[in-house]
């Protein structure tokens, strides 16, 4: 998308539609998006998709990039028509199952969406993003401009250092949902959008896009069409907005309750400085001062998420603390919350959060050693090319920087380096380049 962000127009529907698809609503939405496409240009919108393969219709992003004024005029005329029906016809019905790791639970569905649908969905995304972003708390860093993984990694690093310096107890719980994007209930998504100020016209448009959906699974062959009524489409530009909106509703339902009870860690004089959770899309890290507070917070999230179709993954949810044995730490290796057994990580243990190993015992040493191991793994993956002397030095350096160096320096902005750790990282680079 282009860098310009357009405020929602006052000409949108002010009254809820009396029917599911009110007469003329798609034309009014099409006119609004026509103005956005005129200002952005289809070339600018398609730049985000350049370099990708063609869709099932044989259309690639380079066609939009080099289509010129003629193609842009045709798209503008299309946007002026029945926009909702156009998007519904273009939404596609193919789902490819991609195996990420070993095991049947690690097969991820990716929706195969026509490129023309993605182009117009990007325009709808540009309209809805400023409306929803103002309702999202700073705890959420997923799919938001100006936020990223490094912000949460830095917050966790500061939390570890300050609690160690001031001898404060802290309890953390990293929550993971089972197939989060594919299990959410649609009705709760539309309710979340309405509660966060999205006009009824856009809610009706999205309802029409998700109603009566069919899909076919493509592995080595194509399955028969089947209906599905849950989840967001991974690969759809609108999925991130819909999921973030739903998660915001789930957490905000209990956040005021947590603040009133004094849950979390208070770092200032107001509730704005009281840290209760960090979120990156569906990855939630709960923060509490006592184990009792943390168990109550996990139970609240478990109940609220079950209402919208989400389920906590007990094998990937864990609890971690800087409290050592004999200072209020339970002797059991697991903590039971509402019938679910959650692993209690030992004080010297570590948990991976957003790619960073979080440990209260030598936190920076543990993370840098983790980065060195990951960099060596990346080096061995590309070993055949990196040890081949037929490649030029410039090509070798470009490959090395884009694989080994980027892996090694992931999250380096949050490191606290002393002399020995700096020497350790330099030795790793020298061994790779030898």
From TrEMBL:
For this protein, the record's InterPro entries field holds: DNA/RNA_pol_sf (IPR043502), RT_dom (IPR000477)
Give me the ranges of the annotated region Disordered: 1-28
Looking at the record, the residues that make up the Reverse transcriptase domain are: 96-342
Report any Pfam family annotated for this entry. Answer: RVT_1
Question: Where is composition skewed (Polar residues) in this entry?
Answer: 1-12
Q: Which PANTHER family match?
A: REVERSE TRANSCRIPTASE DOMAIN-CONTAINING PROTEIN, REVERSE TRANSCRIPTASE-LIKE PROTEIN WITH RNA-DIRECTED DNA POLYMERASE DOMAIN
The protein depicted here goes by the name Reverse transcriptase domain-containing protein
Natural source organism: Prorocentrum cordatum
* Upper classification of the organism: Eukaryota, Sar, Alveolata, Dinophyceae, Prorocentrales
